[in-house]
Specification:
about 475 residues; alpha+beta; v583 fold; Enterococcus faecalis V583 fold; 3 domains; 4-stranded antiparallel beta sheet
Length: about 475
């Protein structure tokens, strides 16, 4: 009885597990409360909890030793983190897609996201394909391009199947110039087109005459000038530029002002020496200066080249890709190689340009989620509080998003650090097991394309990947490692 009297006669000190409603009520009454953020594992799914339990308790013979599956996963994931931190993407140059992208052909159109055929392509993806066919001279107008695309004479394959990434629709055709990025750690390469700018552009599904003319200018003027400038300058260290950009207020996906500025600073002296007219040099510099997203198309292949180096690690549950084609959202996992796990693409929640609303938006689209897979973009929003002006929310939201991502990653970057968090490394190496166990999906910030072809960008915001992708991959992952 004395103990009960002491309990109710003294100041309460409470540890609350689960719902914060009880903690809030106690705080209002003056109690000291420690909140434990606990949730039912795997969202309460019986079969997923059973798989998680088997991973934590099952032993297998590996190299003549009996080890827990979880220990093998942890070792493999640490190997992936080490490789990602050792990866060193370098910009080598600019060249025509047909000349450098593995497996590229004149009748092949690459696109963002997992595989999709013409029949199931969304509006902006179709618009970008139509624009590419007109750009290549394979069709004269929208109607002819549409018929050609549906005829079976044109092949469609994901950029990811050809060491390539593309923002939004991600369409790459044979004549388009692409950046060449090499991971100095193991020599693999990745490719990406040059960024056209915002608004009414091919990657958002626009294909009007001004869009095609801009693409031709990029091919005939911008690309050759940059290619020659890089030859004069020498290869450019992208890992260092990305690291600097994060410390200057970028996050590497939807805010690239610092990265673009650093690239211009790096290339400007060499551009001045290129043997072309002063007006051409001025036009090239003005184009880059007026396009804050110019560096995005370099962060993406830098991330791709780094992540490709961890594909196929046995027992590794780290994601190697997240990508969307406007119809489906798909992921790949290291131990599962080239397999895609997909679910319907979600809609983006964000801010719209004047005159547009949710009714105009296409579902999520693009390969630019390679940034988040690598550990920048939405995962580094704490480095770029100003990003909320573009995608919505508050500066504290930006910090909270980054802090939450540490819960679902296998490690931290030793290269890319966040000043606001005491220069802590960005959360990197998304762990499939943690995503499913904690029921926390990766945070992604992105642009929004109009659902109809030919219109272009209508806004930007945040999107939650579908948990089904991760759950399906988790089941397949266990099947793979249990039989290993």
């Amino acid at each position: 009885m004395d103990k009960l009297s002491n309990l109710f006669g003294s100041r309460l000190r409470v540890v609350n597990v689960g719902s914060e409603i009880f903690a809030d009520a106690l705080r209002r009454q003056g109690a000291d409360v420690i909140q434990v953020d606990w949730h039912i594992p795997c969202g309460g799914s019986d079969d997923l909890v059973a798989i998680l339990t088997r991973i934590r308790t099952q032993q297998i013979v590996h190299n003549r030793r009996r080890l827990l599956l979880q220990d093998l996963i942890d070792q493999a994931n640490q190997k992936a983190v080490d490789i990602l931190n050792a990866s060193h993407p370098m910009l080598l140059g600019v060249a025509r897609a047909l000349d450098v992208i593995p497996g590229m052909e004149t009748n092949l159109i690459l696109h963002a996201g997992p595989p999709v055929d013409w029949e199931h392509m969304c509006g902006p993806m179709r618009g970008a394909v139509i624009g590419a066919l007109i750009y290549e001279g394979l069709a004269d107008d929208e109607d002819k391009a549409g018929r050609l695309a549906a005829s079976g004479k044109i092949r469609f394959e994901p950029c990811h199947h050809h060491s390539t990434v593309g923002p939004m629709a991600g369409v790459v055709s044979a004549s388009m110039p692409v950046w060449i990025v090499e991971n100095r750690y193991n020599g693999n390469r990745a490719y990406c087109t040059l960024n056209e700018g915002l608004g009414k552009v091919l990657r958002y599904g626009a294909f009007s005459e001004d869009v095609i003319n801009r693409l031709k200018w990029i091919e005939k003027v911008l690309a050759p000038t940059l290619a020659e400038a890089i030859k004069l300058h020498g290869e450019i260290d992208l890992r260092t530029i990305i690291a600097q950009a994060l410390q200057m207020g970028d996050e590497g996906h939807n805010r690239n002002k610092a990265g673009t500025s650093l690239l211009i600073r790096e290339l400007a002296p060499a551009i001045a020496l290129v043997k072309t007219s002063n007006s051409t040099k001025s036009d090239v510099m003005q184009f880059m200066h007026g396009n804050d997203h110019f560096f995005l198309n370099l962060t993406m292949p830098a991330a791709k080249a780094s992540l490709d180096s961890i594909r196929g690690i046995k027992y590794c549950s780290v994601l190697t890709a997240m990508a969307r084609n406007g119809t489906e959202f798909g992921i790949r996992v290291s131990a599962l190689g080239e397999r895609w796990f997909t679910a319907p693409a979600p809609h983006v929640k964000g801010l719209y340009f004047p005159g547009f609303s949710d009714n105009d938006a296409n579902p999520d689209i693009g390969d630019s989620t390679i940034c988040e897979t690598y550990g920048i973009g939405g995962f580094a929003m704490a480095a770029a509080p100003a990003i909320v002006e573009f995608v919505g929310g508050t500066s504290q939201d930006a910090v909270n998003f980054t802090l939450r991502m540490y819960e679902i990653t296998a490690g931290e970057s030793s290269n890319h650090r966040i000043p606001f968090l005491g220069f802590r490394g960005t959360p990197t190496a998304i762990d499939l097991t943690k995503v499913v166990e904690k029921n926390i999906v990766p945070v992604v910030n992105t642009g929004i394309a109009h659902r109809k072809p030919g219109i272009g960008q209508v806004g930007a915001g945040l999107v939650e990947p579908p948990m089904k992708c991760f759950e399906d991959a988790f089941r397949a992952f266990y099947d793979e490692i249990a039989e290993a």
